[in-house]
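Cross-check.
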Amino acid sequence: MERPTFRSGRRGTHNGQFENGQYENGHGHGQRGRGRGGFQGDRVREQEVRRRARSQGPGQIDADRQRGGARGGWRGGHRGGGGERLRLGGGRNEQAGGAERQGMRAGAAGTGARRGGHNGVRREGRAENRDGTNPSFRYLGYKTLEDLSKQEPSVVAITLSSNPGFRVMLDETPMRPDLVQLICLVVSKAFTSRTDRGTLQHLANVIKESKFLSITLLHYVGGMMSDSNQSRRAQFPQHLEHITAILLEVISIFPASSVNTVNMLVTLLQGSINTLRASGVDFLPKVEEKMENLKDLIAHLQEKSRKGTLRSDKDTYGLLTNSDNQDEEQEDFRNIPLYPTPEEFHQNHKPFLRPNRTSQRYTNTHLYLDTHFRLLREDFVRPLREGIQQLLQNQMAMGRNDNPAKMKHFDDIRVYFDTHLVVPKCTQTGLAYIVQFDVQPLKFVRWQNSKRLLFGSLVCLSYDNFESFLFATVSDRDPKYLEKGQVQITFTEESRVKLARIQTDQLFLMVETTAYFEAYRYVLEGLQEQTEDDLPFQRYIVECSTDVSPPAYLQRRGVYDLSHVAKPEHKKSIRPFNSLDVDAWPDMEELGLDESQMKAFQLALTKELAIIQGPPGTGKTYVGLKIAQALLTNKDLWNDVHSAPMLVVCYTNHALDQFLEGIHKFLKNGIVRVGGRSNSEILKQFNLRELTHSQHFKRTLPSHLRTAYNQIYKQLCEEERAIKSRSLELECSLKGVMRETFLERFMLGRHWMNLNSPPMEDGFEVWSKKTPNLMMDWLGLGSTHFQQREPETVNGKEEEAMEEEEDLIEIEEEAELIQAERMIDDGWTIGPRAGRDDKKKRNMEEDVREVEKLMLAMNLDNVDIRAEQNTAEWQVQGHQRKKMKQKIRQELGKSSTMTAQQEQNVVDVWSLNLKDRWRLYRLWVSRYRIEVRTKALESEEAYQNSVDRMADVKRQENLHVLREATVIGMTTTGAAKFRKALQEVRPCLVIVEEAAEVLEAHTITTLSRACQHLILIGDHQQLRPSATVFELAKNFNLEMSMFERLVNMGLPYVRLNYQHRMRPDIARLLTPHIYSALENHPSVYEYENIKGLNTNLFFLEHNHLEEEIKDGRSHQNIHEAKFVVALCRYLLLQEYKPEQITILTTYTGQLHCLRKQMPASEFSGVKVHVVDKYQGEENDIILLSLVRSNPQGKVGFLNIPNRVCVALSRAKKGLYCIGNSDILSRVELWSNIFHTLREKEQVGRALTLCCQNHPNRQIEASKADHFSEAPEGGCTQPCQFRLDCGHVCTRACHPYDPEHKEFNCTKKCEKILCDKGHKCTLTCHEKCPKKCPVKVEKIIPQCQHTQMVPCYQDPGTFTCEEPCQKLLPCGHRCDSVCGSSCSTRCIVQVTLKLRCGHIQQGPCFYKTSTVQPECRAPCNHQLKCGHDCRGTCSRCYQGRFHAPCPRRCERLLICSHKCAEPCTRDCPPCRKPCENCCVHSKCMRECGQSCAPCIEPCNWQCPHLKCSKLCHEPCDRPPCTQPCKKTLNCGHPCIGLCGDKCPTKCRLCDHDDVSEIFFGTEDEPDARFIQLEDCGHIFESTAMDQWMSEVNQGPEEQQVAIKLKECPRCKTPIRKNLRYGSHINRSLGEIEMVKKKINGRKSDIEEKIRILKNQWDENQNIGQIYMPKEDKEIQQKLEKSYLTASDLWILENKIDFLIRVAKLLKVEKEKMLSTDSYRFRQGVNQFMSWLNNTSQKFTDQQVFDLQRELQRLNLLAELNVRCHIADTKDQMSKMQSEVQEIRHALEMPGQFTEQDQVNVKEALKSLDEKFPATGLGISEEERKMIVSAMRMPPGHWHKCPNGHVYVITECGGANQRSKCPDCKASIGGQNHTLDSGNEVATEMDGSQHSAWSEANNLLNFDPHDF
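Predicted model, tokenized:
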């Protein structure tokens, strides 16, 4: 079944909400596959705003074009036929959840802002140019195309693909015939480019989507038949050839989406060809051949379409050929796939192999290439194949439900369990993924040195026992993250397509092979592409001829000038000479060479294939550089025909750096170093990447490449920003504890409310205080919680070990060394060009920090792991923080989560234990991650497509640089990767250094057809090539290099005979045991002896046993490690520099055993290496640990002469070995070496140490402890040297620092500091203090206590530390010290009587504090729902606002889920993710929303029956009753029925499960079974059919229930089953009708929304002024596209309450005293906090509580207004007592009852009678009578400046002036304007404005009164 995906549309000007309409189901037929070539998705132009499919894969139409692999694909949406996808909502950057939306603008969205981007939101203007093009493009004209047609195919392809003008040209209609012909010519030429794969796929997609293909070509081809112009008709065959070439390319790359259009064109083409041929026009055979290929392929695709198996452009469609059934022995090796196939894993696969011929010639070149291809492929495939077969057999033996592999070690593979994709990463090679695996079984692995998951290693991921699998390579590796179980991998092209079909949260079993696949891949591809005719030097390599000719160029002109190579004093004397004349050569002394070096030099320059063997120290690099210099200074000899560079190839980066640095000494320019990690500063400027970023390069780059780069780069950055935004969110979810606001939408609603209502445990907390970090407290990570908990699973020893490791020396890990050789920099990176990388990285880091700060409550990556706890709250000590960090890491690393059912059963999240809280937390996080991951998919595909196109452009740029080079340097792996570039650059001269260490296949792929001269330099008696499979190395000679094979076959070679490195004693070990002759250069006789030892060479014998390392096949020997480290320490004490000493060992396990013994403070600078990684290196002193010592006498690879040779030949002056000579002597080579050592007594059980100061004192050291007798490198005698201070040196005898200039005297200082005779308390070498710090007794004057005070300090300034004896005002003793101020807060526990009336224990200071502690008394009030309140007195605010009832509703909803709401009156629509799905897609809405019916054709078909209905309709066919004919994995027949999914159980293997009686028919011998997909239970088919046909019966009166049928066993609703699709669809149809009724009619909801909008708009003025935050929130909610009746109920209540509160706030602002206003505002704020509470659902109880509290506030406002009026009249003092009495009644704790309301109103009425509120001097009744008698509408009453009231009749506006009869002040006014001081008499009728203006007059009325 295909996985549906979430698709978001284009980003607009606003970030969208997570709303209805954003999910799309896939269309097509479910499966996706590969089309040829590959394409990942593009953005089409103009106003379509639609996503189209792109795909790729190897086509099989044209045998020449084996490109392989599918290149990704878009996930979800239409899967086939190039169908359109409709965008149904939201922008791509939808942010979910309130806090998330607010935060991401500051965090991830900021990524774009700092770079001049779009703040995470794309500009609208980009919407019509999804392909990254700029609307202001350069138009392509006829002349431009004509010029382009003369360019190279790669130039044509890149130009057309990247120019948006070409896309516009293709859509022009009508089009001139000559332009059509020219376009066909240019495009067909572009398709002949074979190096620009990604570009061609993009170009094919542009053509496929254009009107040119669908309209223009149809008209053009159709018009051919009627064209009578003879000259044009003569050209038609050529034009038709171009058209057929284009059609073949398009249909090969996009088979599914182009087949119909191409078919129409082919039909027309055939008609035109027939017509033209009949009229006498001749066609070339290749045109007809292409037409036949096209027709065959179309017929093949149409047949697939009819069968329903033509899925999409992602599938591979090819025609079978007769060769498919040939035996493998006869199969051409070029047709063998590089990657293993499923058949190889599941069958007893025995590949056909031939051994490498080492003693006879090959019969032909094909056999030679075939042999090496098959051997090399088998070398990497066999470990994976046999390992997986072993794994599968093991699982079958142990049972499928067990996981035995977790406890089992496999020889050939490494297994990683519970692997899942975590986060996508943008890399230079495309999209990579961070994957997480279970690290628990790998706790023993030491990742820093482990060879596990190295860069380039191949991993295979499967979720179905390797029935299918994905391949990927490790693309980045960080031991720090590996310890957490994370690694970065990059999927192969084909696997990326498969990945799109797999669920986002799928768990995989990941298997790693030990082979370095990348190197294999490049070489295997190179061998397959190598043609027999193009292989140079076949005469020697294949035929093994020993007669080697001079280079072809030398036969034309062989005059050499070696003056540049000669010694300085001979440069002028050397003249040019004929190199082929042996007697004409200069003397070897003039050239600075010895005899053998001279022979090698002559051989290299005069033979087209030269082999030079260089034993250790003989100067093979020196000779190689002489040869290179001679060739480069005579470049005109070999480079006169065409400009071709010299190619230098080395096995390791180190050797390559060394050789190129040597060349740089005589060639300052023209070097290009390709790939690899160079440590050379000199060569940095010559790195390919540096050169392609230089200004000179930019100036010389062709314009078509610059244009293409900019176009693609723009799109690349756009997609990268989108991906990184999502990646940031995904990464943050793993870096620590997420804030609860980001997880709100992924929790059940009641759990969110419950989480926000934590139980109160601490009487010290203030009742109004909010928890600062809810999620941390809930997970038990708050400061107090964590301190109180016992440490759970934190291993203190591990942390101590970690701390210790920080101080150990840095060893260049073997893993790092291997990776350094593997990583090849191909010269470009995604992102800004050179110079911007650092800035970009800094910006990215800032973005990460911002998002982390926003999302994480605790960030584990920070040094301080706190997120927002302040200092006062955070009192956790350092060790506790470590434990907390460890605990969090453990929990986040676990994969177990709660199931949805377990989640449903949780009533109170705070009552869960910590283990279950973490499981629930991980469930929330997993849902969050799935959503974010789904949103990222679209950008990922577009990004990969752009990367592939960019790679094509960069390949052309690299070629531009390489063609200009004089010398190109590469490693062998780099040469294999860049083989296509080398074929184009055509180097004619190749030097291979370390040639004997390279597999022959690697050497083959470095050679191009143009090579005329090959020089191999190496030593096959040192390290040989290494193969993965031992059998292939030994029995098939895979480990023999070309160098060694050719030497064995008798080809001429020269061995260098003079060694310049080792002192003679050491050189004796190699000659004659390894080399027959090796002479010493005079310089090696002049070395001084090693200090402190009596010999320069020694082998220490022992018999202490080795230990085996758990991970891998390595070994360690602790005795040897301790001895070698002790010896190294001893040599350092002899004043040798650390850089002069190297410790070598033969096993990586010993490497880390050594490291543990070597603190950095002592051994920093000492090199520690394994022998194999020290080839080509040397040092003064070598300490060699051989490790092997076991009862079995196994010596491992110490019996290989090559490795022994390397180990013994690295030392210049001193060599000290330690090993078990007894077992080593069994090897002949070692036996001979020991014989040589014994001749000079250089082997024994103890090494003699000699004291330099006392030569007669010697120590026999046989173990590390014996070095304690020379503690300082000398002996045990005291030093006796008198220091400048007068003391004697305290050390034992030491050879270092003889003058004691570095020595610090540690004896006690004898100087007097003060007049009281106190001596200095410091040591002798420390500076004495200026003031005497000695403490003496002194009396403190303030309190007369005696204290120990520093001598220099005045006791009056000293703080007395005696306990304070004073009593606090409360009567308790102060808990401070005497010298400090007394405490103001007494914390003695006393009985407190709280304002609510309850009594409880609490700190004494609360008695006098205005702040009350939290009351913990239970509420127990009976709520409106009938349940008792479970809150406390404080939590329920003394009964004013009760905590929500936590009882679960548990009513069964129409969707079959239980209601998840707590104690609700009407169950709201279900908010769980909808579980309805079909084989095509899955509904992605909430369960309570209506599902869109699937309108794909029904997939239910079998050979006997087929349904013709749509997917959502009841099927029109009965279930098939024929038995299924398939065979299960176990080999037994299936027990299911035809057309149904096969049950996983077997009648024989699972007899008890299958025959268990349930319906009663299970034990019948011919019983057939159905397995329900929803729950997995198996039932007998006839009984299950009967069960499904029965009508659902309800319990009451047997009424029919509308619900899904359930599993008879577990009651799981049956949703997914084709057999019962009719029943399911009928039930779903009925359920949909009920859903619509529950959710309300759309028209009713829209009308209600309109009413609410109007209501809010009418009050918006006061809303915006007094509650802007709530106003914005209401506006947003009213704009939501989907609101249920339940949502409207909540919204309606909230609006009503908000309007009433806003009016109160208006009154508070205008008519209250400041003192009353402050207290009133506090009450309103409390009310608003209840109203805005997340648990606010406006239940009966909540509405009642809010109404009662609002009534209290209304009356309090009324009282405050009266007080304000009284204050203006100076009456407050008279009514003080009455006001206080009313205020007391209003502010009493507890709920404001109706009786309280009556009492307060009565008191207010009484107050009015005593003190009339109007201030008119009349009673209220009198005022009413006067107003009534005057019969004036509001707005006519006014008052003079002194408050005397008068009335203005008529319109109410002032049009004349008069005098006040009481005070003679001016009253009235002119032109409807009152005179100054006059105003409306509000106290008469409540008017606020004069009545003359209708607008003003309306304001005098309450809108609710209308």
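DSSP finds 62 helices and 45 strands in the chain. The radius of gyration is 44 Å. Passed to J.P. for a second look.
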